[in-house]
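G., before I forget:
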Amino acid sequence: MSLFRPAIERMAGYTPGEQPQDSGWIKLNTNENPYPPSPAVLKALHATVDSGRLHLYPDPLAKAFRQAAAEVFQVDPDWILPGNGSDEVLTILTRTFVDPGQSTVYPYPSYILYETLADIQDAGSTRWLLNPDWSFNWSTAGNVLESAKLVFIPNPNSPSGNRWSDSDILRAIPPSGMLVLDEAYGDFADSPHRGELLRQPRGERIVITRTFSKSYSLAGIRFGFAIAHPDVIAGMQKAKDSYNCDALSLAAATAAMRDQNWMQANVAKIRATRARLAESLTQLGFAVTPSQTNFIWCTYPGRPHRDLYDALKSRKILVRYMKFPGVDWAPDGILDGLRISIGTDDEINGLLTALRHILSQ
Ligand SMILES: *Cc1c(COP(=O)(O)O)cnc(C)c1O
């Protein structure tokens, strides 16, 4: 007899990308930023330690952070809700809006964590199969969106790196639910959004989530946040732990948010490296999907992707091998390929040198 809830017993659990703890790797598998965070972040962390206040709970309302984020997104602070990574914000959203037995939807292939969150909640999760060019399939949308309480859309998308238009996003708001716009990669896009969709008609049905793990170089800190209409934020507030963000991560995120120039300089470097990598991969014979993110999705016609992944790993280069069953337009119904994070120029040179070797063998 199992002591677990049946929903937990049944589920497989999410498998994050590998995080080797030894050095010497070129790590291009989990879309971390290769550049350091703003020096202001380190100063804020030191100041927090030196303040002698670590014996006290942090500000449960995160006032300083909300103020900083509100200025950047041009909303009032009550439009902002911080979380312990944007993954926690997604958890809070599921707890807030979805009862057991109700349904969630996400475009597929995309971020599989959405399915895990629904599993934990004992809710349904429907894969809204994308077209081969990664556009939305509007012929199935009516059916799929009909009963959804939450629709999760990562925009730009992972693993493909494409970004859907605002009109596509607005059209995907479910008739009796909320749309979660996961903008984990929003800062890497051509003209980054700053919450404009929330000010559209029906914008009160959208929650935008953002993370410090990618563009702000703070994956180790665990910090993300939601932006939404204050009524939505107030509801989510009830479903979160009082002290879900600790004093150190709050200080770090506030300082990072206040140094937009630093973040944008890193984003510019990554976008330049991304263009170079896309071109080099194409020259090597890869099919490359144009990317609005800090990674590139590519496929190679002549060699199993799993073998390329293994050959790179044996050279201490980690990329993400990804495999999506249930894609009816892919060979044997399985879409697979490599998702390569944009590293420093040196790291990308190392990757390209290794790939040239591997492909010439
Ligand atoms: C990386 C990523 C996140 C996770 O962000 P954290 O703030 O590190 O939890 C969320 N959504 C997508 C699509 C991501 O790729």
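Residues 31, 85-87, 111, 154, 158, 182, 184, 211, 213, 219, 224 surround pyridoxal-5'-phosphate (CB under 6 Å). The chain is about 35% helix and 20% strand.

More on Monday.
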